[in-house]
Amino acid sequence: MTLLSVDSLSVRLRARPVLSDVSFSVGPRECVGLIGPNGAGKTTLLRAILGLVPHSGHSSLAALPPRDRGRAAAWMPQARDIAWPVSVETLVALGRTPHLSGLQGISDADRAHVDAALTTMGLDALRDRTATRLSGGEQAMALIARALAQDTPLLMADEPIAGLDPANQISTMEVFAGLAEEGRAVIVSIHDLGLAARHCTRLILLGEGGIAADGPPDAVLTPDNLARIFHVSAHYAHTAQGPVFQPLEVTR
Amino acid sequence: MSRLALALSALVAVLFAASLTTGPSDTSTLSDLSALFLGGDGPLPLVMREIRLPRALLGLMIGASLGLAGAAMQGYLRNPLAEPGLIGVSGSAALGAVLAIHTGLAAAFTLGLPLAALAGAGTGVLLVLMLAGPRGASITLILAGIAISALAAALTSLVLNLSPNPYAASEIVFWMMGSLADRSMTHVWLALPLMVVGWVGLATLGRGLDALTLGEDAAEAMGIRLTRLRLTLVVGTAFVVGAATAVAGAIGFVGLVVPHLLRPLVGARPSRLLWASALGGAAMVLAADLAVRLVLPERDLKLGVLTALVGAPLFLHLIYKTRAEMA
């Protein structure tokens, strides 16, 4: 069973090829870290998968009707938009949008998902606070909770942990890894390779206009790939406390 | 029904009744209402049914239209400074009306002016939709709206510039100030069907506007069809604002101030703001139309002038409050 299959996907933005011939599939229990240098096309790939940018090739999600897609995959964009001073609870409840039909309001089942998402992200104390008045990190946590409340088999998040403190970064990655253990799948774009190595079951490395490497962290974070795509050297070791990854020097 | 809905509905009902029973003829409220519902002899039933009822109904309809369209526009653009006139509908409707006055079409038959205004609004909105394109971000819609508004305003000035005599010019200027005086049930029947279509369209936008709180990308990924939402918004606004401008002229500030004022009372949720602003807009226009009759009854104070006079300071106050919150 696959939750997402992408087949020879190519994206051109303003006549400039950004991604060409990208193919991969994601199944249950996978926590995929999407890594790559700035401008490698991580955001573009995620948006193309969802059908939000024009592309050629096939993505199983982009092919779905909009509402079905909203039930199949949750998407947390990099831009942390909260346009109106709504309460945190209201914000998280927006994640239930694809599950509501007609004029029907939010049901008890919907509310249960909202409560669970708030608890998972440790936001119970903030639920009645105005979302726009929270700190940037707290807003990010609320927006992750919104994506969790969508309760989809696949969660896609674009740099969700950027700007979070270490504790929140680790617990957010643990939440994602936990979703994968439940039998869901997560695709998360991330710049912190250390957290990616520790919490992701699989890494997809974007570079040179396509997928440069795809596999378990050990197979992707090789000295050769790091030098070729990221232009860094790194210390990567397996310790008693799990994998430890530390970039060291720029090699270019 | 929430407490806010009850309070706003009660306010609208009271203002509607007050609008029915306010006028130059010095009669009691009771006899006014009995003449309206039961008829009877003398001029009073005629005054009630042919003069005051259409005036009160138009105030209700136009206020609700402007409030609803304002809330929808602010929700879509995610900007509290948006207002329904932004997409050029009121400007192009005004141009149609001004052309009707200038060419004598307005004098030739009763519905000449409102029909010309509707034609103007329709042309304007089609141009905006063509310019903005079927897809694309909200910014293209704003730019297209600004372009069409500017063009309509320039052409309106040109008509004024070329008007044959000062009387024609002053007729145009007074019409553009907006008023509900001397309207008939014909105006109600002309505007109502169009407004109902627009109300129904705009009322369906609630869920999509709520989702847009998270930005266009997130909303689209949650299954909201943005292209359809935008089309419904623009066409719905064109119907309600075009019809409102056609029968009453330009009435500003209602669509801007009312949603802004009510937003904190509905927890800032765009869907709940839709109906709240419709009620609030109706209350504001009914109150303003009462005021023009009570403040300077003999000078024919224009409704649009009063809403701007009241609206601008109110808006300044809101800015001041926002500034204090941000500090």
UniProtKB/TrEMBL annotation, chain A:
It comes from the Bacteria. SUPFAM superfamilies: P-loop containing nucleoside triphosphate hydrolases. Pfam families: ABC_tran. Transmembrane segments: none annotated. Residues 4-233 form the ABC transporter domain. Keywords: ATP-binding, Nucleotide-binding, Translocase, Transport. PROSITE patterns: ABC_TRANSPORTER_1, ABC_TRANSPORTER_2, CYTOCHROME_P450. Gene3D superfamilies: P-loop containing nucleotide triphosphate hydrolases. InterPro entries: AAA+_ATPase, ABC_transporter-like_ATP-bd, ABC_transporter-like_CS, Cyt_P450_CS, P-loop_NTPase. GO terms for molecular function: ATP binding; ATP hydrolysis activity; iron ion binding; oxidoreductase activity, acting on paired donors, with incorporation or reduction of molecular oxygen. Part of the ABC transporter complex HmuTUV involved in hemin import. Responsible for energy coupling to the transport system. This is Iron complex transport system ATP-binding protein. It comes from Roseovarius tolerans. The lineage of its organism: Bacteria, Pseudomonadati, Pseudomonadota, Alphaproteobacteria, Rhodobacterales.
Automatic annotation (TrEMBL), chain B:
One of its GO terms (cellular component) is plasma membrane. Its main location: membrane. Residues 1-17 form the signal peptide. It is a multi-pass membrane protein. It is found in: Cell membrane. One of its GO terms (molecular function) is transmembrane transporter activity. One of its GO terms (biological process) is siderophore-iron import into cell. PANTHER family: ABC TRANSPORTER PERMEASE PROTEIN MJ0876-RELATED, FERRIC ENTEROBACTIN TRANSPORT SYSTEM PERMEASE PROTEIN. This is Iron complex transport system permease protein. It comes from Roseovarius tolerans.
